[in-house]
Amino acid sequence: MTTHAQELERYGSQTRKSLAMYQRAERILPLGVSSNFRTYEPYPIYIDRAQGSRMWDVDGREYLDFSMCFGALMVGHAHPVMVQAIAGAAGAGTLYGMPHDREMRAAELIGERFGLEQVRFTNSGSESTMHALRLARTYTGRDKVLKFEGAYHGGHDTVLVSVKPPRPRVGHLRHPRAVAAGHGIPDGTLENTLVAQWNDARSVREILERHENEVAALVLEPVMMNVGVMGPRDGFLQELRELCDEFGCLLVFDEVKTGAKLAWGGAQEYFKVKADMVCLAKAIGGGLPLGAFGSRREVMNEIAQFRSFHAGTYASNPLATTACITALERVLTPEVFPRVTALGNALAEGHNKIIKKHGLNACAVNMGANGTVFWRRTPPTNYREWLDQDFATFWRYWHMNLNRGVIPQAQCYDEQWTVSALHDERDVEHMLAVFDEIARELA
Ligand SMILES: Cc1ncc(COP(=O)(O)O)c(C=O)c1O
């Protein structure tokens, strides 16, 4: 049996060039990275290149990648169809600052797929939720936004509330306290962001009753994917739909992670619940930075009337919209989703068999292309249950995987695996074989 300390030693001996790069990066980039989510102890591996379901680090080590850039690479690394389309588009100019046909086609494809009458483009998921929530405030004439405890919707103030609140500060189960996610978020913001409990319609109702005519939008990830993969209990999304209708607030689905990943048409298709507004990013960009938000014409008209502000220098640039069209038309086609779902389910079933065989205190779940291992006996149903896990074992599992050439999911215990269009059965078998070895050690 190897201890975690021995695994870290092995990690160090195999990633010497990454360490040198980390030491150089740390001087100019806080934490040595450009996004906080990329860091982990003792230092991250630095990547040289990627292809298909694989990445290679600067030390020349090959990894089977199930992070796929936090799920953004649903098309797979350097998919030949994507590479050809992007290279071709680059030659025709990458920014016009003027309208063009590719943004129209991309918007039409998104409109059809996600049932949206009108769409506007952004460059990221954070921008999508920021603009969508401002639009909801404009449309309803209300200031407050309701979100769920433990949910992440990007890096702007309104939603940087109760993302991962420390346990002693969470407050009442059904009326969670609004806790700022870090410093620099004004108290006024906290007054306008209300927090409800996931999978508890009573919590949502009581908060909407208490703040009648004040809540512009209920924003949620239909499957919470910044706490692993935490689905709604049966009927919960339908109840939220009815509550939003009753209280006159907009139901905003943050489909940054579920859109074109849970199913062809995302969570609305998967759960058969219609949202008022949908926020997108990650998979729709086909590997380039692209986000979008959309709704019915009546709501989007607030933008056309210059009442709700939306603009962006890079929004709908010809490169990213070409990648979007190519991804949606040629790679993320309807046939892909049953295939990746079957592979994801096979991963979860395989993990659960191995967990049982070795008697680990863990369980695996999968929905669509997304799955994870929880380090507790049963899947959690809300953030507070999710907190109740053996996170130390996650980190041991993480380093053990990297040492054996597997990136089992995006970094950190709150993420999940992504089965992309370029993963196949052999990748599933490979990951399970490595997990079997790891589980034997952990038992
Ligand atoms: C559900 C959800 N919403 C929004 C965002 C923010 O997206 P971005 O990182 O592109 O700004 C993320 C990022 O992971 C996310 O998972």
Describe this structure in words.
The chain has 443 residues and is of the alpha/beta class. Helix content is 41%, strand content 14%. It has 15 helices and 14 strands. The protein has a 7-stranded mixed beta sheet, with helices on both faces. A 4-stranded mixed beta sheet has the order 1-2-3-13. Helix 9 links the parallel strand 8 (250-254) and strand 9 (277-280). The protein is globular, with a radius of gyration of 22 Å. The model has no long low-confidence stretch (mean pLDDT 98). The structure holds pyridoxal-5'-phosphate. Pyridoxal-5'-phosphate binds at residues 70, 124-126, 129, 152-154, 221, 226, 254, 256-257, 281.
What ions, cofactors and ligands are bound? pyridoxal-5'-phosphate
* Cα gyration radius (Å): 22 Å
The portion of residues assigned to helices is 40-55%
State the secondary-structure class: alpha/beta
> How many β-strand runs?
14
Number of helical runs?
15
Unreliable stretches covering 5 or more consecutive residues: none
**First CA to last CA: what distance?**
10 Å
Q: Strands of the biggest beta sheet: in what spatial order?
A: 4-10-9-8-7-5-6
